[in-house]
Design goal:
The complex is a heterodimer of chains A (811) and B (109).
Chain A lengths: L1 H19 L9 H5 L19 E4 L6 E5 L5 E4 L3 H27 L3 H5 L4 H9 L2 H14 L1 H20 L7 H6 L8 H16 L4 H19 L49 E7 L10 E9 L1 E2 L4 E7 L2 E7 L8 E3 L3 E7 L5 E5 L9 E4 L2 E4 L1 E9 L2 E10 L4 E2 L16 E5 L7 H9 L4 H8 L7 E7 L4 E6 L14 E2 L19 E2 L5 E4 L22 H12 L5 H8 L5 H13 L7 H12 L10 H21 L12 H10 L17 H20 L8 H5 L1 E5 L8 E4 L15 E3 L2 E5 L5 E5 L17 H5 L4 E2 L9 H4 L2 E7 L1
Parallel strand pairs in A: 1-29, 3-7, 6-23, 11-20
Antiparallel strand pairs in A: 2-3, 2-29, 4-5, 4-22, 5-25, 5-26, 7-8, 8-9, 9-10, 10-18, 11-17, 12-13, 14-15, 15-16, 18-19, 19-21, 23-24, 26-27, 27-28
Helix pairs in contact in A: 3-7, 3-9, 6-9, 11-12, 15-19, 17-19
Chain B lengths: L1 H13 L7 H12 L3 H26 L3 H9 L7 H25 L3
The chains are: A alpha+beta (811), B mainly alpha (109).
Chain lengths: 811, 109
């Protein structure tokens, strides 16, 4: 009996300890995780947490002083370039290590290593897209330049110095939840991080859907419904700006090639609502007599925040702004002489080539009248708790064949057995652009910096203390014949290849225009009638750009606050353009009482998507319903063929100018529907569905509640995000705050003898969910206010004296 | 006396060693001084559970419960302070069973 009890008790104890030290699926090891000595409790931080004041590190060349202000923004004072990037790596890792590593794991197709088999298809997709291949190409270019090489090495060493000091009990919380440990950082990871941005911002492709449309409806309908320029537009380069270069000849357009129908397509598309605004006003229009600059990049809203504020100071440089955790430099910001910001350029830099294989083995493809070999790259995908999966990716001279077998694809816009040509696979050195911008003193420096930039192409806006304002839609753009890449291309004929690049100096641009401001909101870079090269047939809808330009044209004596108010502008220009015509089309006698009430609310609306208005909820429910009613019968997806609807602009033009168009008829019914009927039916349906979700017309219909802006945790962990934030705005509005995306950093800079910066982002400097500084900036962001950024001139000025100090000292 | 020893020794060692050090500590102390099965289990349970409760409560109050709330939501707990009790319970169960095992093993000799 004694022996039995001893065996049982020891067995139970051992089993208990082992079970509580093991993770099962997504459940963390409970004992290890709950222990207040080593588990999650150790990640809880008091608001005024102590800061270690002296950190000995082996690699710095001289001591580095880091001052933390009351929003926990680090201001790094270093003696040389190596030390400043070492310290940037160190402090960024200290706040954001898990985020940095998780993002690069995702980019590299390595999530299954930490999460398990359920992310396998995503990992395969990343590898098949050639994300690591692109990052390796970029890394080669970065290491070839001594400045970027030193920067990468220092930044990497800084991150690794932090990782080496970490004990398991101090691992960021997410490592404890997923039960793994940080691995050493490498320069390749910096490159991978930039490739994620390239995928988010320049990884979209409509080629497959448009090819299917072309096959179904022919060239004239396709041209009519998917035109190369919208009916209302206000391009970045103001019309009438003279060219300051002699254009190159354009490659000849080959006779029309019609791709065979490609069956399969993509799910994980870049979000079309990702966009951004930026603008700069000339001294003549500002109250201070110096230029002002504003920027608000619209990205997916998440925690930890996408951006990390930082100030970098050396004897040759003093720059403040936001960085991307995992990459050195300030990406958007200012120094004492200049300020700059970015928005995305929607140029077409991803094309697909239909291939002709020699045989079923798919080892050779036909190009330029010969069989060319296909290169095979083997990929090992490690999986947590299971055996590795091996995959082989095929590469042509165009790029990877993303899916080489007829199979279930992860992203439905991926044509199977086609090769991809993507600018993100080019060697590139974007970090050198930022290195130079951080040190820029004048317009020449800025122009010089831009020449190193490839992807994702950005509209780099610029203002300086000598009253120059400028904007360059900047990146490496293929020299294409008109519409090259609007549809799937012929992979056998070199006439369809990318045949060169638009010279840098020929990128669209404008300096000090007579109107006194420059701006961009992802719209067309230039009017294709005036600009000699083809960049794309479609850019972001023009409404944000038009509104910004209207307001800026009218504004005089502009101040920081008027810039801030413009960033928060909620006018729904789309509604203003189309709603009167839509309301006129509705047949009021067919509405019931609730529908009449909603109709009245819309009729009284002044088109602002303010948080407490009800009208935007009705309009934003109605428009997509109407859009579907018009197009679903003609351009709806079927399980085998992916199509897309014409753009919102084209639909608006049709309603305003061609209300009798054939497209309003629903072809699946014998009766002939009219615009008036569709408008009425869809209005009724929209109101009914709002009623079902929110009850009778009332407070629950308020826009902020219906829109429900959520800032989710990067790994979508429940409880670690912030839900239902009470804000107005919306997609296509200057204040582009949607359900999951929006202004990820709002900045206004007033140049002058003492540069003044203002900014906020929806999150906090710390990536630790247990920190007060994880989400403390959200409320100010929600209210549309900005913080004054503490731009320090030196480490001994009065403002600096009050800050917390951390020193990196030579060991 | 045994309770106090378990509490103090385990508490101190956990600052340097992995969390499961609580098992050998409870086992050893109960093997040395355990009076009977129930008492051994009780001292182990309280010695470890109290330690875990004390430290987690200290952290919880010092940090205004920021993280307790989030982790509580992550595990869908109706009230985040339940996390304190669950923490104490898990520590206690490990301590209790290990101490009981220690007592049972001593009875073999």
């Amino acid at each position: 009996m004694k022996i039995f009890l001893a065996l049982v008790s020891v067995g139970v104890s051992l089993a208990l300890v082992i079970a509580l030290n093991t993770s099962f699926g997504m459940v963390p090891p409970i004992g290890k995780f709950l222990s207040p000595f080593t588990g999650f409790w150790q990640n809880a931080e008091a608001k005024e947490g102590p800061l270690i004041t002296k950190v000995p590190v082996t690699r710095v060349q001289a001591d580095v002083k880091v001052l933390y202000d009351d929003n926990r923004v680090p201001h790094i004072f270093a003696q040389n370039n190596y030390d400043v990037y070492f310290a940037q790596g160190y402090v960024t890792a200290k706040d954001r290590l898990w985020q940095m590593e998780f993002q690069t794991h995702a980019a590299a197709g390595r999530l299954s290593e930490i999460i398990g088999a359920r992310t396998l298809e995503m990992d395969r997709f990343q590898r098949r897209m050639g994300m690591v291949y692109g990052a390796q190409q970029a890394l080669k270019a970065m290491l070839a330049d001594p400045r970027s090489r030193q920067m990468l090495e220092a930044f990497t060493a800084g991150i690794n110095a932090y990782i080496q000091q970490l004990k398991p009990k101090n691992f960021p919380l997410e490592y404890k939840l997923l039960n793994y440990a940080p691995e050493p950082w490498t320069p390749l990871k910096c490159a991978l991080l930039l490739k994620i941005m390239a995928y988010d911002l320049a990884g979209g492709s409509d080629d497959l859907r448009l090819t299917n449309i072309l096959r179904k409806y022919g060239p004239s309908v396709t041209k009519n419904l998917f035109p190369d320029y919208p009916f209302r537009e206000d391009p970045i380069v103001p019309p009438g700006t003279p060219l300051d270069f002699k254009p190159l000849p354009i490659p000849p357009k080959p006779t029309l090639f019609m791709a065979s129908q490609a069956e399969n397509q993509v799910q994980r598309e870049p979000n079309p609502e990702l966009g951004s605004n930026n603008w700069a006003v000339a001294a003549s229009k500002s109250a201070t007599g110096y230029p002002l600059l504003a920027n608000d990049p619209h990205l997916n809203l998440s925690l930890p925040s996408i951006w990390y504020q930082i100030q970098l100071v050396t004897p040759e440089m003093n720059v403040y702004g936001v960085s991307l955790p995992g990459a050195p430099n300030v990406i958007i910001g200012f120094n004492e002489q200049v300020s700059w910001g970015v928005t995305n350029v929607d140029a077409d830099v991803m094309d697909w080539y239909e291939l002709k294989f020699k045989n079923k083995l798919q080892q050779q493809y036909w190009h330029a009248n010969q069989w060319k070999p296909i290169r095979k790259v083997s990929e090992e995908i490690k999986i947590k708790g299971a055996a590795s999966v091996f995959d082989t990716v095929l590469y042509t001279h165009h790029g990877p064949i993303v899916y080489d077998q007829a199979e279930q694809v992860f992203n439905k816009q991926t044509p199977v057995k086609h090769a991809m040509r993507w600018v993100a696979h080019e060697p590139s050195n974007e970090i050198l652009t930022f290195y130079l911008l951080n040190r820029a003193k004048n317009y020449t420096d800025y122009q010089q910096a831009l020449t190193h930039y490839t992807a994702p192409a950005q509209n780099f806006i610029y203002a300086d203390i000598t009253n120059t304002i400028a904007i360059w839609p900047n990146g490496k753009f293929p020299l294409k014949w008109p519409d090259q890449g609007k549809f799937i291309l012929d992979g056998t004929d070199p006439a369809y290849d990318w045949q060169g690049w638009i010279p840098r100096a020929h990128n669209p641009h404008v300096v000090n225009p007579p109107r006194g401001f420059v701006s961009s909101a992802n719209q067309f870079s230039a009017d294709p009638k005036e600009y000699p090269y083809y960049l794309n047939w479609q850019f972001a809808p023009a409404q944000r750009g038009i509104r910004i330009n209207q307001r800026l044209a009218h504004m005089q004596k502009i101040t920081v606050d008027s810039m801030r108010l413009l960033q928060n502008d909620n006018l729904n220009l789309h509604a203003q353009t189309i709603l009167p015509a839509l309301l006129a089309a509705v047949q009021p006698e067919k509405l019931n009482k609730a529908q009449q009430q909603a109709f009245q609310i819309l009729s009284d609306w002044h088109f602002f998507n303010n948080a407490t208005e009800t009208a935007p909820s009705i309009f934003q429910e109605w428009w997509p319903t109407l859009d579907r009613a018009i197009w679903e019968d003609d351009f709806g997806n079927s399980p085998t063929v992916q199509l897309r609807y014409p753009s919102r602009d084209r639909t608006m033009e049709l309603i305003l100018k061609e209300p009798q168009a054939y497209w309003f008829d629903n072809r699946t019914t014998p009766a002939k529907e009219t615009l008036n009927q569709l408008a009425t039916i869809t209005f009724q349906a929209a109101v009914d569905s709002l009623q079902q979700r929110y009850g009778p017309v009332g407070n629950k219909w308020q826009w902020a509640q219906v829109k429900s802006t959520d800032i989710q945790h990067l790994a979508k962990l429940p409880g670690f995000g912030r839900n239902d934030i009470l804000v107005g705005g919306g997609a296509g509005i200057v204040n582009a705050t949607g359900a999951h995306h929006g202004p990820s950093w709002r900045m206004v800079v007033a140049l002058g003898p003492e540069v003044q910066g203002y900014g906020v982002y929806p999150g906090g400097q710390s990536g630790n969910p247990g920190s007060f500084y994880y989400d403390n900036l959200i409320e100010t962001w929600r209210q549309g206010k900005l913080f004054k950024l503490k731009f320090l001139k030196n480490a001994t000025e009065p403002a600096a004296e009050k800050m917390l100090v951390m020193q990196l000292v030579k060991k | 006396m045994l309770l106090l020893l378990t509490l103090i020794i385990a508490f101190a060692l956990q600052f340097f060693l992995p969390w499961w050090i609580v098992a050998p500590v409870s086992f050893g102390l109960a093997a040395w001084r355990g009076r009977n099965g129930w008492a051994a289990f009780g001292t182990g349970f309280l010695g470890i559970g109290l330690g875990w409760l004390l430290l987690s409560a200290f952290i919880h109050f010092r940090t205004a419960g920021i993280l307790t709330n989030k982790v509580g939501q992550l595990f869908s707990l109706p009230n985040p302070t339940l996390l304190l009790l669950i923490t104490a319970l898990i520590g206690g169960v490990v301590g209790g069973f290990s101490a009981w095992a220690g007592y049972c093993c001593r009875r073999l000799f």
